[in-house]
Specification:
elongated
Length: 203
């Protein structure tokens, strides 16, 4: 009887050890190349003329993403880059530039986390810090901060238990008031669409 109990106990420990070894770390990191395509929506300039005369340059940027899986299906992802410089145009003519730093945090649902092809959706918040504004010879300014929503959808193509390829699409709210010598001039909705491809590593 004692021998049987010992054998069962050892078997149970072996099963738990095997499960622990099979489980993945909750941490994943990705590196992506992301094309940022602004919506280029703006109010009238100085309250006159047509709308959408102010536009922001498109750009391809590097991105680092850190994910933590609370369960196999649910994860949080922090999306990071360094300050990015953009040109601003009025009726197609450059009027200066600014830099923005847009960290974004999303909560994701992964539909088939154990499958080779694993799609997901996500939603969260974006905080954008605007700096180095140089518009209209220094007379034009933008708000320093922007808070907005972020929506996300993507898919991981697993190479092995650690490595994967990734395709990701995000829509982010980034908006700012434009002033000229302290007076309101317009309101810009950058609201970019971000399309990214990259590689991920699950620890």
């Amino acid at each position: 009887m004692k021998k049987t109990a010992i054998i069962l106990a050892l078997s149970s420990l072996g099963m738990f050890a095997g499960q622990a070894m099979a489980e993945q770390s909750p941490w994943q990191i990705r590196a992506r190349a992301v094309h940022l395509n602004p919506a280029d929506k703006s109010a009238q300039v100085g309250g006159a003329g047509a709308a959408d005369r102010l536009t922001v340059s498109e750009k391809t940027i590097p991105e680092i993403d850190i994910s933590y899986f609370f369960t196999p299906n649910w994860a949080a992802e922090l999306i990071l880059t360094y300050p990015q410089k953009h040109e601003v145009y009025l009726d197609g003519t450059s009027i200066g530039s600014f830099k923005h730093l847009p960290p974004t945090l999303t909560v994701q649902y992964h539909f088939t986390p154990q499958a080779k092809i694993s799609p997901y959706i996500g939603a969260g918040v974006n905080y954008t810090r605007i700096s180095s504004v140089n518009l209209l010879g220094g007379a034009g300014r933008l708000e320093n901060n922007s808070f907005g929503l972020a929506l996300q959808a993507g898919v991981d193509f697993k190479i092995d238990k650690n490595w994967s390829l990734n395709f990701d699409v995000k829509k982010v709210q980034i908006r700012s008031d434009v002033t000229l010598n302290g007076a309101p001039l317009s309101n810009v909705k950058v609201d970019p669409l971000l399309i990214g491809v990259g590689v991920g590593y699950r620890f």
